[in-house]
Amino acid sequence: MTKETHISNGKVDTPSATQVLVRQLADDITSGKLVSGDPLPPERELMTSFAVSRTVVREAISALSARGLVESRPRYRPIVRGYDFDTSFNALSDIVSHLLLKENGARTLYDVRMFFEAALVRHAVTHARREHIAELRATMKRSLSSLDDHVAFDNADVDFHAVFYAIPGNPVFPAIQKAFVKWLYGHWQSMGRSRADNLVSYEGHVAIFNAVTDRDADAAAQALVAHLSETWGRMSSTFTPNDLT
Length: 245
What we know:
Blueprint (H helix, E strand, L loop, with lengths): L5 E3 L2 E3 L3 H15 L11 H8 L3 H13 L3 E4 L2 E5 L4 H15 L5 H23 L2 H15 L5 H17 L5 H19 L4 H19 L3 H19 L5 H4 L1
Antiparallel strand pairs: 1-2, 3-4
Helix pairs in contact: 1-3, 2-3, 4-8, 5-9, 5-10, 6-7, 6-9, 7-8, 9-10
């Protein structure tokens, strides 16, 4: 394994063995030499191929996992994921997590979500097909049957909103939603909620659904904003004061 040198402030900087291995494995992933969905070669094979220690291999895998290029699982070899929209927004969601530490970060990002989804439901009014309406109806049925199960209810909630991200057929949009979900899911789960709270959220979905099926774009956007505003009113208690002001 060769190392490149760089000059910085008059000093020669030599990348560490871990940095070099990360770069070479990332190149193999982007070139297709390591195929998305396949496991990485075993640790010992990587140690031999690149003449590095087990520690270097594990540090490199950890770095690749942080970049979304591999998926690490306990007791299994890491799986190659490659570059795609999901990978890119997984990396972005880590940046978003840091932005949440900024003053008013949570409210700012939530407003982005609200603006984006209001546009999506408007689009759905004129572009939703029969199968999309069926998917929305199915997620609402799941929500209604899981009012006492917060995890199942939240999963159905995510799937309801996912339909609107899918309708335009743009592969970037579902990846954006996954980034929002990664950021928000823990806050959803940490909210103190009752069956009545979940019922209010369900009724918000009903209002959005009815407006979409009535082909009323203004009503759909208004219902979406009302629904997310109500949710924010409860979710905001899970953020620190600096996130909100």
